[in-house]
């Protein structure tokens, strides 16, 4: 039958091309969905202006990206892992045990995390202590740790509007959640004295006790991305969502942003360290692939060039807070310095 | 009982079989039940149709605007001092000028052209005018000049998209009120856009590049297109067809015509049915482990996608193919065997040709469901930002990174710029059209070649 012949020849062709085209000629990147838009902007400009093909950028989350990079050295593993948090000790050890001993850690800027609510609702001016008082499972009341019963924001702080508490926080698999826990919840816990109370009560890990959020449905974990949070805020006009600064800036038609400690989140305020809730963004480069995968080094240098990551570059236009120590990172890339082992 | 029987003898007989025209209570009940049964059926169809209508309506309402795009047309003088500093006309030398240089040329030309045409908005800066041009336009101009270096120094007419926000203004997504709060667009830009439209500089045009262009980054939603995703889906469907058909047909023929009926074949049969119900993401995990980690095939490649989809659709295709083979009447086989054909001749010369339309229909329907699948592709790296078209299949294009239509829908739906929501719905429309043609092909094949006994 003729289609049999066709099949056999097609299979043979595929097998042949598999061996012939085994040399990969484009950079492959995987990881954080927060870094994804920045990486695609750079990849696109890189493909346009260089003779190398456009790098392939995948999302999937910081942890998943790092694990993919740590699978080993070779063309069928990714070259760069985007990450919205620093690499963990576990991931680093996984890398080393799989032969990925030299990793370059590249910090390319900062990202702000903002609280935003429906455009037509009241304006909010939060402090980390307010957020902790509204969302924690246990709060300090008259010197004693009690279950959180606050129903409206006015219950938490009389200066806030009397609107029902409903906060959409990033789910635990998000890199954003770590920053939210560290810079908002724990900072607030310390501010309002709950941390000290937990310690006094003999909690094994007072910070962990602080991070326990209420489970009566007023603090809602969102495991999807910011578009899901936006959809939830859109549907629940009382809701307050946690977003990345760039996401908020693209959706000012639906959202208004809350101040934190009286500071309006802007790239300038974050660069000046006035706005407290921000985090560095990283990507990790597998050094063994430099010189093997064409364009890898060029892509990394291009990413960190002033034209891209500088304060007037397209990344800043999209919402990246550019790194004041950019020149040092550029030097690090030029020298291909790998990161030090995590102890 | 005994004292009733004599009287009943002369009384008129009870109407056990009354006139059919006269409704007995039982008949009424039965008729009512039948009417209700009809009503349930109609209600079910109405509910299904309503859901479909609502779904189609929202998709088309949100997505139709992706097919046209605000485009401005203006003359651009390609300044030799910028693009060809050495004046050599050497392409390699000229390619050192990046899109930033071309963006400046475009911006300056637009500012000059608008001033010449007398289109002026009070208090508008040159930067605001420049920012109205899509970030994609410099790259297109650069490609055009590098492809034809003789353009240097000439004045050419350029069709450039406007930025996503200005385009959104013409589509009703952005209003002046929103623009005041938005850091990506200013009210003066919208005023200028109105002026330019009146003067005919700016027009809404059918956007072919939505279908042909590759994906674009978050800074230029207006330039994002489905080209790579369409090619990727096409490659995957082609390969899946090539892989599934022989395996599916061979397995079905053996099971139907040759295999003995025993416990082993029963077990195989049960397992095939079970596999058809396995969640598709499982095949993605399997594909990652076998094809990428073990066999070392590249990730994001249509070949790997096709292999995974093959695993996923094979059970469905085997079930459909077996049904088609079983539908060939035994008399055909008996006649063939009776005139001395071997078992293989019977199958190849008679059973298979008669079952072919059914087999093809089943295969195409299986492929159509595979075409809309995202889950298994998530794990093998096809949910990615890919802007280079895969090469032709003869140049190893099956191993080049590519995207797929359902994947593009998913990734656009999670971008931050609202302009991508419209494109996501637009991609659904294209996917639906793609599936419509596949299913139509299946129906045509069945109608044309089907034989009834």
Determine the N-to-C terminus distance of chain A: 64 Å
Morphology call of chain B? globular
Task: Give the chain pair forming the largest contact, with residue counts.
Answer: A-B, 60 and 55 residues
Name the CATH superfamily classification of the largest domain in chain A. Answer: Periplasmic binding protein-like II
CATH superfamily of the largest domain in chain B: MetI-like
- Inertia-based shape of chain A: globular
Helix content of chain B: 55-70%
CATH architecture of the largest domain in chain A: 3-Layer(aba) Sandwich
CATH topology of the largest domain in chain B, which one? Answer: MetI-like fold
Total number of beta strands of chain B: 4
**Per CATH, what is the topology of the largest domain in chain A?**
D-Maltodextrin-Binding Protein, domain 2
Oligomer: heterodimer
Q: Please estimate the helix content of chain A.
A: 40-55%
What is the top-level CATH class of the largest domain in chain B? Mainly Alpha
Class from secondary-structure proportions of chain B: mainly alpha
What radius of gyration of chain B results from the CA coordinates?
A: 33 Å
Give the H and E element order of chain B. Answer: HHEHHHHHEHHHEHHHHHHHHEHH
